[in-house]
Amino acid sequence: MIKVIIADNQPVVRFGIKSYFKNHSDVSISGESNDFSEVLSTLKNKDVDVLVLDLELEGLKSVNVIKAMVKDHPKTKILIFTNLSETMYAPNLLKTGVAGFIHKTESLESLESAIINASKGEVVFSELVKRNIAMAAKLHKSERLYRKLSTRELEVLRYLSAGKKNHEISEILGLNEKTISTYKLRLLNKLNVTNLVDLVNKAKTLDIV
Asked: Cα 206 to chain center, whole Å?
């Protein structure tokens, strides 16, 4: 049996996934969590084949920690299951070593297939993401900067869009406030806007947040 842990803020999501796999012949839901620190504790104390992880999980402040998780728990395949934009987030997550990215608009059958394939060592990303990655590699540097934001820039942009101030973001991400200001300026430049309101609106238009 493939032992799976569900890490998601929403009880209805966890319940739906558990119900779907209740009598599954190959997949067993062996735990659930709505808190990132609890997930880390579970990974240390239990054998987990696949972790179904929401990027907006409580306590998950930065995508960078996922890279550490992949390194510290090589036997556990991490499958991202989230509402955040696949086009913007998946390419950077692919570099961290996660097993795949499934958007929450996908069917439970798609999640089932992703879990099984990830457990076999396959990398599960949509054809759209694979095409975008290939396309980005062919673009000139200036075009890549516009089309592809770094993981940290995406995180700063997400918090700015949520109404967080620079000092609040610096505390959340553990960075200097001046560093956050630098990221903010880069975002303004890359998205070709001049103020925060336009930056947030542009991010929403591009389905970044």
From this structure: 17
Structure tokens at 200: 């947030």
**pLDDT at residue 133, as a whole number:** 62
Ranges of H-type helices in 60-195: 64-72, 86-96, 108-119, 127-138, 141-147, 151-161, 166-173, 177-190
Q: Residue 127's CB: how many other CB atoms inside 10 A?
A: 7
Angle at 194 between CA 172 and CA 136, to 5 degrees: 75
Q: Strand order of the sheet with strand 100-103?
A: 27-33, 2-7, 50-53, 77-82, 100-103
Three-state DSSP at 82 gives strand
In angstroms, the CA 8 to CA 52 distance is 8
Cα–Cα distances in angstroms (integers) from residue 45 to residues 3, 41, 109, in the given order:
14, 6, 29
Distance CA(137)–CA(149), nearest Å, equals 14
The torsion defined by the Cα of 133, 93, 116 and 127, in degrees rounded to 10, comes to -20
Q: Token pair of 184, please?
A: 């903010």
Strand partners, 102: 81
Tens-place pLDDT, residues 74-93: 999 999 999 887 777 877 78
> Collapsing DSSP states into helix, strand and coil, what is residue 2?
strand
Structure tokens at 154: 């995406």
